[in-house]
Amino acid sequence: MTASERSLELALAAARAAADLKADEIIALDVSAQLVLTDVFVVASGTNERQVGAIVDAVEEALHKLGAKPLRREGKAEGRWVLIDFNDIVVHVQHAEDREFYALERLWKDCPVVPLPDDVVSGSGAA
After folding, report:
1. C-alpha count within 13 angstroms, C-beta hemisphere, residue 89
2. Are strands 24-30 and 40-46 parallel, antiparallel or unpaired?
3. What is the DSSP letter of 113?
């Protein structure tokens, strides 16, 4: 099973919104074969709590414009690791230190990476 077109559309919009706010190491993983609850994880990093919060706000605004509303949000008050569940995708915005420690990419290394356009990847500092 692969991620739906809608999931890929939302993942790209979330990644672009994060890139616009200078998020680092933006990646999208197709977890649809591993999880029944969602299709794609989008992971991005911020260098401080304020940037993490701003990235979260930008992602929510971008996906709201596409008609997607978060089912739940965890961790925004702390600003270290914010998880936003949009049903079709789950967005993880992590403080860079927490990203390195928890290493979600390693945990989900068997899942295919969703290709993101160069402007999103190069804008994220991950290039």
Report:
1. 30
2. antiparallel
3. B
d(CA 45, CA 25): 6
Q: State residue 16 phi and psi, 5-degree precision.
A: -65, -45
Domain extent listing, the chain: 5-121
The secondary structure element, H or E, covering residue 11 is helix 5-20
Find, among 14, 33, 32, the residue nearest to 93 by Cα.
14
In our burial notation (b when 16+ CB lie closer than 10 A, e otherwise), range 99-123 reads beeeebeeebeebeebebeeebbeb
Q: CATH number for 5-121: choose from 3.30.460.10, 1.10.287.370, 3.40.50.2000, 3.10.20.30.
A: 3.30.460.10
Backbone angles phi, psi at 94, to 5 degrees: -120, 150
pTM over 0.85: yes
User: What does the pLDDT look like over 5-20, one tens digit per residue?
Assistant: 999 999 999 999 999 9
